[in-house]
């Protein structure tokens, strides 16, 4: 058992070494690699964490004699081609859709995604997904109508409290009336006030970014530093995340380190009751991903032990928790059987995270279960 644990830790150390090399453009430690390096595990983990594009940069920085053999390199090259195509495709959709909204006097704010990709050394090698545009409650209905008229696939579309979700020119587009929300009513009240302040009342302070040749509003730096964190924390507490989400946040903090208003940031973190988890994940960003300690606001080494536990969970669960449970575990097709299956999975995950911050996790679990029971029993 101890030998297996030691072996796993060595594999994880290799993966993190390559990930840091790709994030910062620093050379990997050649002493860690040898003829018996288990490239199958490393590349599988990079895909599981959706950071293969970044890890590939780390591999490229190794001496040629230490790099993986051709059978391993070919899938990497194919993956990089697909990443670049996806990156170009998303930029093309932004170039098509954003001007249509602007022509209707709607100024969308680009959340996450392509706006964050700009913070990477090679934006086109960041794993991209969908396009999130914040339009706010007032322009929400008009924006949805424009997207539909532009040719979005309405048969696949669906709507939630937070956004309208549809496929447009082969890309998923989400139009947000709410940038974020919480099932905890008290926290949700604070989140809505906070987002309204930055994205509506202070909208004139939003910077303009040029992405794919199109000018689009981006969130203020003080907002985004916390918003990116809250977004992945919510997913982590629900069912887990991969390293990509933390890499996004880490690179953002690095790029904006000199302009980030730390006093405002401290106020926002306290207001949203995120202080404990902010410091915990700060240890992940600094100690495991290589962010310079001076660039992380409010670094606290006392959270290193809990950060080690978080990193272990991230290795186990992968991107948005998709790999935490056995692939052989299939959700039943029946409505209530499916709900019971999901409930048992969530409880298993909550048990793993509760000790990290009992009060915060306990509150999250209470409101999540309350919401789940309402949905299961009343279909609300």
Short description:
With 380 residues, the chain is α+β, with helices and mostly antiparallel strands. Among the domains are: 2-68, no CATH class; 220-324, no CATH class; 329-380, no CATH class. 58% of the residues lie in helices and 9% in strands.
Strand content: 5-15%
What is the element string, with H for helices and E for strands? HHHHEHEHEEEHEEHHHHHHH
Radius of gyration: 21 Å
The side-by-side strand order for the widest beta sheet comes to 1-2-5-4-3
Contiguous runs where pLDDT drops below 50 for at least 5 residues: none
Q: Roughly how many Å apart are the termini?
A: 47 Å
Major sheet details: 5 strands, mixed
> What integer is the average pLDDT?
93
Number of helices: 14
- The tally of beta strands, per DSSP, is 7
The coarse overall form would be globular
Percent helix range: 55-70%
Secondary-structure-derived class: alpha+beta
Write up this protein.
With 380 residues, the protein is an alpha+beta fold. Among the domains are: 2-68, no CATH class; 220-324, no CATH class; 329-380, no CATH class. It has 14 helices and seven strands. It has helices at residues 2-24, 39-48, 52-60, 70-103, 113-117, 136-149, 185-201, 221-238, 243-255, 262-271, 275-288, 304-317, 335-353, 358-378, and strands spanning 109-111, 131-134, 153-159, 163-168, 171-176, 208-211, 214-217. A hairpin with a 2-residue loop joins β6 and β7. α8 (221-238) packs antiparallel against α9 (243-255), α8 (221-238) runs parallel beside α10 and α9 packs across α11 (275-288).
């Amino acid at each position: 058992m101890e030998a297996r644990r030691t072996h796993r830790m060595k594999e994880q150390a290799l993966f993190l070494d390559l990930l840091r090399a790709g994030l910062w453009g620093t050379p990997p430690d050649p002493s860690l690699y040898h003829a018996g390096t288990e490239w199958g595990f490393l590349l599988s983990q990079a895909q599981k964490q959706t950071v293969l594009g970044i890890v590939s940069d780390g591999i490229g920085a190794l001496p040629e004699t230490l790099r993986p053999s051709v059978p391993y390199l070919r899938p990497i090259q194919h993956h990089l081609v697909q990443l670049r195509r996806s990156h170009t495709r998303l930029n093309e959709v932004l170039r098509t859709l954003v001007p249509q909204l602007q022509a209707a006097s709607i100024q969308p704010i680009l959340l996450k995604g392509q706006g964050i990709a700009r913070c990477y050394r090679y934006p086109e090698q960041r794993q991209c997904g969908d396009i999130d545009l914040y339009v706010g409650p007032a322009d929400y209905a008009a924006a949805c109508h424009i997207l539909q008229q532009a040719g979005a696939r309405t048969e696949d579309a669906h709507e939630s409290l937070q956004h309208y979700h549809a496929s447009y020119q082969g890309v998923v587009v989400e139009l947000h009336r709410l940038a974020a929300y919480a099932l905890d009513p008290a926290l949700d009240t604070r989140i809505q006030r906070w987002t309204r302040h930055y994205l509506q009342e202070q909208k004139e302070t939003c910077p303009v970014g040029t992405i794919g040749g199109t000018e689009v509003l981006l969130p203020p730096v003080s907002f985004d530093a916390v918003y990116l964190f809250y977004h992945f924390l919510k997913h982590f507490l629900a069912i887990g995340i991969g390293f990509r989400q933390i890499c996004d946040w880490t690179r953002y903090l690095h790029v904006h380190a000199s302009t980030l208003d730390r006093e405002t940031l401290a106020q926002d973190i306290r207001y949203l009751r995120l202080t404990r988890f902010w410091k915990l994940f700060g240890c992940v960003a600094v100690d495991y991903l290589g962010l310079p300690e001076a660039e992380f606001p409010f670094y606290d080494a006392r959270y290193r032990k809990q950060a080690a536990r978080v990193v272990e969970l991230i290795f186990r669960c992968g991107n948005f928790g998709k790999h935490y449970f056995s692939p052989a575990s299939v959700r039943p097709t029946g409505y209530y059987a499916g709900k019971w299956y999901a409930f048992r999975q969530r409880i298993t995950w909550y048990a793993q995270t509760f000790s990290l911050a009992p009060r915060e996790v306990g509150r999250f679990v209470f409101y999540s279960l309350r919401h789940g029971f309402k949905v299961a029993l009343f279909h609300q």
